[in-house]
Amino acid sequence: MVKICCIGAGYVGGPTMAVIALKCPEIEVAVVDISVSRITAWNSDTLPIYEPGLDEVVKKCRGKNLFFSSDVEKHVSEADIVFVSVNTPTKTQGLGAGKAADLTYWESAARMIADVSKSNKIVVEKSTVPVKTAEAIEKILTHNSKGIDFQILSNPEFLAEGTAIQDLFNPDRVLIGGRETPEGQKAIAALRDVYAHWVPVDRIICSNLWSAELSKLAANAFLAQRISSVNAMSALCEATGADVSQVSHAVGKDTRIGPKFLNASVGFGGSCFQKDILNLVYICECNGLPEVANYWKQVIKINDYQKTRFVNRIVSSMFNTVSGKKIAILGFAFKKDTGDTRETPAIDVCKGLLGDKALLSIYDPQVNEEQIQRDLAMKKFDWDHPVHLQPMSPTSIKQVNVVWDAYAATKDAHGVCILTEWDEFKTLDYQRIYDNMRKPAFIFDGRNVVDEAKLRAIGFIVYSIGKPLDQWLKDMPAVA
Ligand SMILES: NC(=O)c1ccc[n+]([C@@H]2O[C@H](COP(=O)([O-])OP(=O)(O)OC[C@H]3O[C@@H](n4cnc5c(N)ncnc54)[C@H](O)[C@@H]3O)[C@@H](O)[C@H]2O)c1
Ligand SMILES: O=c1ccn([C@@H]2O[C@H](COP(=O)(O)OP(=O)(O)O[C@H]3O[C@H](CO)[C@@H](O)[C@H](O)[C@H]3O)[C@@H](O)[C@H]2O)c(=O)[nH]1
């Protein structure tokens, strides 16, 4: 029986391995992690991550050919294929701080693999890593190999959160990079056989190692660039009276451009886009390509601009101060259908409003108070470390109140900000919300989910990203 072990039971390792176990009943899959609490949660009825469809897949395989364990060394030593799906955070100190990927966790996983291995292994990079990481890992493994043969493959993951199971069941492509030697090609074939259990072979792309590593960074940079492009347009739409939804629709109808990923928003979030672009920028700089680095840096700059612009709109339209005013925040996750808050634009918007002394009442159907307080207290990039190594927040922020209902959040509020596109925000009883708010009552829609005309008819002053402005907002221009 082929044995697979995945180091890292996170958003990628957990769902990816659960799907491999489901689709390949004759393969034994073990997912291991240094975080005991994560493993305990994977073995319980409440999984550590919320992802539609994940519970069913885990329930079908857990205890049969899918195991979650904190006995990392045992499972690694027994495996034929070892996936490494650990954190690759942005460095916060030292060379490349604020940009370069911190490979501490990757390196420690590689050294552990070398230490405990007694048989030949294929080691698969699942984490997103800088180009040429495979070479570094190869050096660590071969210098400590005790005669064991290690083949390194790059198999980046393209799943998006909220649709992870769907994406894993039906991927646009699976990418496998390996050495162009006979042994490298044999390793590629072995991994291809695993995916071929359910992925059509024409969607399994094989390449050299460096192309596979770079393709992951490139794909995320292109996706994020589309959002920054449409967000840049949204600012111009507000200035000119154009409507960004109409512009996106018209532009996306061009089959060369396509309609996806053209929704203007308060900014992109999530654990990957910013981190991976910063990593790409650093690699360009290290390779003596400052123009290319600056080109990609702009994608992040526009994203930061969009979040600041949103906060400035709120404050300026509410008579240039939100001090002591209750503002309801609807949605805190970085997108709908996930409880993940990593790099969510809500953190920057909330911090901006708190900086102007607002009182925040936050509601998100999947994010609890402890998480929100941690996020608002944490320093930039600290979130991307194993949970038990993250600094604890010393105190909770008193101006922040977390509630479990949109109506409680909005009661007596001066303004409402929609920061995640949860479906339930489309069908709220906005008349009831308006009746219970202070007047004038404002709605700032950072996701373009509400029907502005209906809300205006109720009496709200409405701001929707990239849409023609109310007279009120035109009269109170925001400083960009
Ligand atoms: N989240 C996504 O949607 C996504 C998608 C594609 C790629 N990625 C990439 O995949 C990687 C993992 O991302 P994630 O979102 O799953 O992160 P995560 O933080 O959810 O999970 C990583 C896990 O690795 C564990 N870990 C760290 N070092 C370890 C070690 N030495 N031994 C055992 N366990 C260890 C941590 O405790 C943690 O549970 C990152 O490189 C990320 O960029 C993420
Ligand atoms: O038109 C759009 C599409 C997305 N977003 C925002 O962009 C962010 C990222 O969304 P999405 O890409 O759907 O989610 P992620 O889970 O971050 O997935 C991205 O990052 C993963 C990690 O690398 C990759 O595997 C995926 O392919 C890539 O889509 C979220 O805040 C979205 O709200 C927009 O603002 N407008």
UniProtKB/TrEMBL annotation:
NAD(+) binds at residues 8-13, 33, 38, 86-90, 127-128, 161, 272-275, 342. It comes from the Eukaryota. GO terms for cellular component: nucleus. Pathway: Nucleotide-sugar biosynthesis; UDP-alpha-D-glucuronate biosynthesis; UDP-alpha-D-glucuronate from UDP-alpha-D-glucose: step 1/1. Residues 328-452 form the UDP-glucose/GDP-mannose dehydrogenase C-terminal domain. GO terms for molecular function: NAD binding; UDP-glucose 6-dehydrogenase activity. It catalyses: UDP-alpha-D-glucose + 2 NAD(+) + H2O = UDP-alpha-D-glucuronate + 2 NADH + 3 H(+). It holds the Pfam family UDPG_MGDP_dh. Keywords: NAD, Oxidoreductase. PANTHER family: UDP-GLUCOSE 6-DEHYDROGENASE 1 (PTHR11374:SF53), UDP-GLUCOSE DEHYDROGENASE/UDP-MANNAC DEHYDROGENASE (PTHR11374). Belongs to the UDP-glucose/GDP-mannose dehydrogenase family. This is UDP-glucose 6-dehydrogenase. It comes from Gossypium barbadense.
